[in-house]
# Entry
Amino acid sequence: MAQAQSTDPIIGQTFGNVIAKSLLGRGGMGAVYLGYHAGLDMKVAVKLLPDLFVGRAELVERFLREARLSGRLQHPNIVRTLDVGQSHGVYYLVMEYVEGVDAQKLLDREKRFTPMRAVNIAGFVARALGEAHEQDIMHRDIKPANILIARDGKVKVTDFGLARSLNNTATALTLSNQVVGTPNYMAPEQIKTTSVDMRVDIYALGVTLWQFLTGVLPFEGETPMAVLLNVVNEPLPMPEETFGPLPKELREAIVAMTAKDPRRRLPNIPAVLAVLKKARDALLHAGLNSTAPLTSAGQRPPVGETRDPVSGNSFGAPIPVPPKGAAAKGDHTTFTKPLGGIAAPKPAARPGSTPPRKPPTR
Ligand SMILES: Nc1ncnc2c1ncn2[C@@H]1O[C@H](COP(=O)(O)OP(=O)(O)OP(=O)(O)O)[C@@H](O)[C@H]1O
Ligand SMILES: [Mg+2]
# Structure
């Protein structure tokens, strides 16, 4: 790994004011590097977009537009976009660096989360979505890998709007002939048409919550297309043996968030927060209030790594200097505190975007 890093030609290159220091991870839409921003004298994360963008003016244009839009988002549960540009023929996005771990890696390590921890993280993601939806910005790729858990316990959602740069994942699949994006979290209408609205984020959050509770993905298939077909056609399983004895409020929350028909799904984020709060209250009532990691007996979390992302303070050292733009607007210890920016429910639509889709044809 160390050898791979040292031979990585990206390391040491500059992207605008940022010098790439080390690889943080790779995803379907490029690679993310830890960088140092000389002007701001701070660590940042730089996302390099894949070659898929080269020579595709309309994709580049859409990417830049989405990046500018997401740059407007300022919320404690949203990773701040700081810059966007092109260097060495590569399009890049500079963002706030979140020192911690993403929820997918945490899941891989701990297998699954306690119901309270799962609901709490989902609640913070919902708050982030509430802020974005208020500004008519969809995420379109909500999944554990895009949910970062900082060392001090804050939950931050990254990659806002980026999936839209590729129009939608189904298009991306065709474009690149490989999996870009994640079919398992895609709402049926996202697969069947490009005409979607904010409810795709609600669906993806429901699947993410399901995965937090079970540690596995709901729709399986040998190929991405097989998964897509299952998403469209198969009901989301609710196996008692996988979930264990959960309050019905939590099951109902998941069912309401993941309805295949968007007209039957929870219509907006305030509605999602309401059902999550009900589920949280029911968990408290049932005494299922632990947010501790579900590690096997005697197995301790690795030193310096996250132990309880939601109650905070259980991590190794706290972050000495909070990242810029992450000013406290709300409390990161419980998502059920007053929501500040999240106002009354309103229909989801972005000016110039496609209208809510028609009912699916069967
Ligand atoms: N702002 C950030 N701060 C710290 N680490 C980050 C940041 N953004 C991403 N990462 C890390 O880099 C990894 C790769 O991110 P990336 O977005 O490329 O992949 P992904 O989320 O798995 O897939 P996708 O391309 O579909 O978003 C993440 O899983 C996360 O661990
Ligand atoms: Mg990502």
In short: The chain has two domains: 10-96, 100-295.
